Amino acid sequence: MIDFLRSSPAVSLDARINDLVQPLTTALSSFIFFSVDVGGASVPLIVVWLMAGSLFFTVYLRFINLRGFLHAVKLVWPKRSHSQAEGEVSHFQALSVALSGTVGIGNIAGVAVTLSLGGPGATFWLIIAGLISMTTKFVECTLGVKYREIDDKGVVSGGPMYYLQRGLARRGMPRIGRVLGIFFAASIVVGCLGIGNMFQSNQAAAQIYTLSGGAGGALEGRNWITGCVLALIVGLVIVGGMRRIARIADKIVPLMIVAYVTGALAIVLMNITRLPWAISTIATQAFSPEGVAGGVVGVMILGFQRAVFSNEAGLGSASIAHSAVRTSEPLTEGFVALLEPFIDTVLICTLTGLVLVLVLDQETIMGGGLAGIELTSLAFETAIHGSSYPLSAVAFLFAFSTMIAWAYYGQRGWIYLFGRGAIKLQAFNLVFCLFIIVGATIKLGAVLDFADAIIYVMALPNILGLYMMASEVRHDLNDYWARRDSS
């Protein structure tokens, strides 16, 4: 490999790394995304697995995503934090860390990728997927708190590997629980290198590359420089563990969300007379898409697939962050967690979709040769001259916040597998930072292949465990409402 990277001095380092990684990511994606043909659409079975889970939990818990929404908002306020309970962070901080893991470049670039493939109608299915995904987050984060472990120093370890192991052991299936826990932990250790690492650094580097002049500019063939800067900053944060990550996340996450939403809303208001047309176009093409393989099924799958990539519902990752909350009532964090897909997908992703549809024509969106953050940047720059610069700053924050959250997720999986040794943990941190540099240098297609494939592997054991423990969550929910009503 070293000889490969050193050869052909006329070829940039970025190009050499890409040539090495591309075949591996393509092969991995083909293996994971086993699909069946439905009406001319290629339907990945893993996406069906996630869609079915979200629908089941939403109906089984009687639409708690809607019934519990206002209660969730009340719980987020700092005054509602159970400061005397066990845990490391407040409800707001736990939500901020989890949001920092979900509100990332996917909200800016991922939506653009989806619309470039599925057209405006994909936005409708993003919204539907976001709404039903709220219930999946509720279930997994409730179980994350219920089955977490807290050591004598107050450090919390939680997430699917713990509720799979301990929850299934409680049902007389300790071996199955242990195997599923190990499988999930191994998946998230590898998976954090994709969605929460390489994809983020790739799109942040792409935006900075464009601003530096693009082809012929200062960073042509040198995106690894951006990767090195990101890796250094992320490395300085993640060595401090959950408390440092939470302190940073609860400051930058609200800032970056407000900044992006404000910019997107400004563009929507500037085009307010076209808004009814945009909404009509999105709704119409959700059921009568133009130029999309597989028609309605094809655009629906694209919407659901990208929604899961964005909000991570069903993957179990966010429950790792929520497990660290200070509370003696697991259900409270389940309620707080259902706000994530709403903010991430229903609000932010929808605004991105509206900006693209309002500002750019469909030919540019689907056939203009641009994808990812470059397409979103074009829409912002077209609407407000010079807005690509603040968008770059927001994109950098989105990428940074997602990487520190996913580094924490990977650390928890690593500790579950190999123990808490400081040297072992620093080895993981080093590998994580090196992959930031790799992600910045390779092409978007290779990154998406790797990120999509690995994160969906995590859903296999997680959703299976959620099905097994769904009745337990419903029982606890009924008990929670009964105690509140009687108090």
Question: What is this entry, summarized?
Answer:
The chain is mainly alpha-helical and 487 residues long.
Shape descriptor reads globular
Please write the CATH class name.
Mainly Alpha
Write down the secondary-structure element order.
Answer: HHEEHHHHHHEEHHHHHHHHHHHHHHH
Looking at the structure, the CATH topology is Amino acid/polyamine transporter I
Number of domains: 1
Backbone structural class:
mainly alpha
Mean pLDDT: 79
Any idea what the radius of gyration is?
Answer: 21 Å
CATH level-4 homologous superfamily: Amino acid/polyamine transporter I
Calculate the terminal CA-CA distance, rounded to whole Å.
Answer: 66 Å
CATH-scheme architecture: Up-down Bundle
Major β-sheet, in short? Answer: 2 strands, antiparallel
Number of helices: 23
**DSSP summary, beta strand count:** 4
Helix content: over 70%
User: What share of residues are in beta strands?
Assistant: under 5%
Structural features, described:
With 487 residues, the chain is an all-alpha fold. The protein has one domain: Up-down Bundle (Amino acid/polyamine transporter I). 76% of the residues lie in helices and 2% in strands. It contains 23 helices and 4 strands. The chain has a two-stranded antiparallel ribbon. The protein has a two-stranded antiparallel ribbon with strand order 3-4. It is globular, with a radius of gyration of 21 Å. The termini are far apart. About 1% of the residues have low confidence.
